[in-house]
Amino acid sequence: MPPFLIEPVRTFNHFVLVYFVLLNLSYAFLAILALAYIRSYRQRQGYSDLRATLQSGNTPAVSILVPAYNEENGIVECVKGLSLLHYPEFQIVVVNDGSTDGTLERLNWAFGLKRTLRRYPGGIPTKSVRCLYESTLVPNLVIVDKENGGKADALNAATNVALHPLVCSIDADSILEEGGLLRVVIPFVEHPNRTVAVGGIVGIANGNLIEKGKVVSICWPRPLLLRLQIVEYLRAFLAGRLGWSYLGGVVIISGVFCLVKKTALQECGGFNKETVGEDAELIVRLHRHLRERGEPYQILFIPDPICWTEAPESLALLARQRNRWQRGLCEILWTHRRMLFNPHYGIIGVLTLPFYLIFEGVGACVEFFGYAVFGLSVAFQVASPAFITAFLAVSVLAGTLISVSAILLEELMLRKYTRVADLPRMIWVCLVENFGYRQLHAYWRLRGVIDFLRGKHEWGQVAHQGFKPQK
Amino acid sequence: MFEFIQDLVLQSTVVLAGLLFLLAVVLFVEKTVRNTFGVYRQRRYHLYEQSLLSQFAHEPLSFRPWRFRPKKWGDLRIIEFLLLDYARQFRGSLRNQFTGLFEILGYVDSEVARLRAWRWWVRAQAAKRLGEMGSRRAIPALRVALTDSNEEVWFMAALALAQIDRKTAAKAIYESLSCRLSHPNSSYVLEVVVGLGGEAWTPLLESLARQSETMRAAIVRALAELKSTQAVPFLLCRLKEERSPTVRVEVIVALGRIGDPTAIEPLRCLLTTASAEIRQAAVQALGRLQATEAKEGIRAALEDPDYWVGFRAGEALAGMGEVGRESLQRACASARIRASTMARYFLERT
Predict the structure, then answer these.
(1) Number of domains in chain A
(2) Are A57 and B225 a contacting pair, CB within 8 Å?
(3) What is the DSSP-derived secondary structure letter of residue A469?
(4) Which domains occur in chain B, in start order?
(5) What digits encode the pLDDT tens for the residues A238-288?
(6) Helix (H) or strand (E) holding B42
(7) What is the ipTM of this complex?
(8) Is A17 in Cβ contact with B6 (below 8 Å)?
(9) Which one of A134, A397, A409, A432 would you mutate to disrupt binding with B, by most B Cβ within 10 Å of its Cβ?
């Protein structure tokens, strides 16, 4: 290695070391906060009663929004599951977003659709709506057939049609647990004026036994890729978002399962069609809007309602999804750059968004280049192999420890994977993900950042196979 | 410096490996224990408790309380929980027998003792269970709990007192309630007030004008839940004086839910106000009241520039039976496109 490069390489190595320590400390801190949140949540569960919420005349009615684009494989199961929810009053709005497959035909076959004379209400601007249908079998089901305009556009069309004061967005490849809606609505019952949005945990449905739109048995799937994603989801939702919720700084609520106040959504202009991360962008926009108006509000994340969703089963699809997520994050950080490090926006401006910028946005680049520079350091003997090996060992162990702590949180809160035999497998996956998957993930995220800088703005093909139990 | 960092990294490896091992062991033990005992509890429930509870429900006279003696199975709390869960479905004399059973088995005393626990969630749970048990023996302890510094404990105690003895406890509850009316969790207040029933409405009305916007909205919701027609004049008065649109909407919704016909005329007047939110709430309330007198106003609202006012007007007319149907048919035949489309839609649905 040329002598003039030795010092910069050393400096970069030290930077990576400090960065790594800070990253793991912040994740560990979030996991501890999540533990505290789960503890207080469980304490309240000892005396709070879902039945009272179910019977109360003050439980707000909810419109469930289901955007569907080429979802013929899973849409019927999804709507059946939703129609069986335990909730006093709700409406299901499915938007056929210009599907080119048989989504509308499948819906018609399963629910007996009938064209209604009802006019499409205006409100948030959307692509043109062809027709509104109502089901002859499920009284609270409305289908909006419209031209393709993307997920955000479909959600906006559904919001326009929604009858009730709360809207819950759910993906068409997802299944919500029976009592899920009832649990997620509790903050709206307790603080009707302050609560603006509430999110719930998303689990991976692949491999689970699903009958009549209900998850009847939860199985630890066989493909390693799915197992890796399960651990990743647990880490992201239980250790990450719960920790942020405890601090009052949630900025990412997955659009797979999110309950929002309709008036707040309309005031903000609905879901943003210009971003691929419309769910998280909406939450950041809500924070911005309400902080600028100086209104007291709360946006929360609840640990126990679960929405099961279909995860990609091939590397190509997963790469596309992660690329999209990374682009979405970059778009949010760029659109709302005014909020970054700005104390006017409270914890969101000072802590949450800087965290996402430093550790999630830039993190992919640091991690990817860190591996490359470490390789060069060993090859050109800038750093001793013993040091690099020890550092990598610490990195693997710290990563594993944080993932295992997420499993502990799952055991304390959800207990979905009940078999003792699943535990060593889960811990094994926590260890294995550090060898290959994590590096691949860093590469996908880096590609996402590059695509964002190149101005790429498309969803890419998303193929859903529907819910099939494993053999 | 570099050597120091190297040493630190090496030591961290050992510490992290140790922590990881410890965490894995904790997880494994926790899962094994929970699974083992979980299955055990489930079996025991199906084998013993459920059959005994069924026997009690069907033949209360032949029931022998000592068969529930805690010593027999050890875990007092599980049986208590199961009994409470089972007792929820009964009312009247059978429910009173359950109350007697809770006293005989010592559950009431045990929960009264738990009201003095240092952990607030234990106190809150105890208060809630005492309310469900319905034993008057718990009233003094619950009155003391009304002064608890923790909001959740206070709320559970107030709710429990309202369940056990709403008449004599109403004053004490209301006194403690009025100290807390500034609390942001208005749903708590609402639930307690609804628990108190008719005893609560007079003091509620007295405080209606004084509170914050959030609390006024909560009080109005409570009045709606109580469905007392005596509250209607006060609500109508509030409708005139109220500045906050949120509270005005709540008042209109409450008038609709209470169902007193004296509210029809003032509500009909609101159909021409500037705020679409108010017009929508008024049309909905008139629909709930089955206000056939206001059918002309509601029919005119079908043509409202705001889509949802028109939609709610259609809903209201569709719910009025033959009179509403007639109005919808007339709107259908009119030249006004919006009203005619909406009316046709609701006619088809009815």
Answers:
(1) 1
(2) yes
(3) B
(4) 76-88+95-156 (1.25.10), 260-350 (1.25.10.10)
(5) 888 999 999 999 999 988 899 999 999 999 999 998 888 899 999 999 999
(6) helix B2-44
(7) 0.75
(8) no
(9) A397
